[in-house]
Design goal:
single chain, about 130 residues, alpha+beta
Length: about 130
């Protein structure tokens, strides 16, 4: 008899083992807390600088991505950018893609999330969120 009261090989023992494995897998799949710092997330623009536009936020985000992040390479053909204005910040989502028969395929490709203040200073540069 096991400490849980379930006999080995019984449905309860199997369920208990599955619950334990699920809990272990969930615990190890927590959030990845990685931020790019330093030159990858500069904050040198003065607060009274002109506010940037969505197009400027995308260009700024491109500058802050790692070299060759958007290819071209055998693995990455380019990137799609999605700027969003929220809470007085620009949030730019960058998604790699590969062209497959003329269609942009993002499956298995990396992404990054760059958050900028209203004038273009980096607040966060988060790879693969």
């Amino acid at each position: 008899m096991t400490t849980s009261g379930a006999r080995p090989g019984s449905g309860a023992a199997v369920a208990l083992a599955c619950a334990f494995l699920l809990q272990a897998a969930t615990a190890s799949a927590g959030p990845v807390l990685v931020y790019r710092e330093g030159e990858a997330c500069p904050r040198g623009r003065p607060a009274d600088a002109p506010r940037i536009t969505a197009a400027q936020a995308v260009e700024r985000a491109k500058e802050l991505l790692p070299k060759d992040f958007c290819g071209p390479s055998w693995w990455v053909s380019g990137c799609e950018f999605d700027p969003e204005w929220a809470y007085d910040t620009w949030r730019v989502f960058a998604q790699q893609y590969v062209l497959e028969n003329g269609v942009r395929d993002i499956r298995g490709r990396d992404h990054s999330y760059i958050v900028l203040d209203a004038v273009g200073n980096c607040i966060a540069n988060i790879p693969g969120t």
